[in-house]
Amino acid sequence: MGIFNRLGREVEEFKQSAKEAAEERHDYRCEACDARFATEYEECPDCGAEAVVAADDE
């Protein structure tokens, strides 16, 4: 049973690491509400403004 517990912990650690890495990547942002996104949008899904720009355009 110990091998399954260890494997389960390793899988959970991998999931958490992958989730954190995905959340850290924000290539776009909304100039109106400063929401951050990994995908470019025509208008901000949070506030609806047409102000989504590349995050490095600060």
From TrEMBL:
<keyword id="KW-0175">Coiled coil</keyword>
<feature type="coiled-coil region">
    <location>
        <begin position="4"/>
        <end position="31"/>
    </location>
</feature>
<protein>
    <recommendedName>
        <fullName>Small CPxCG-related zinc finger protein</fullName>
    </recommendedName>
</protein>
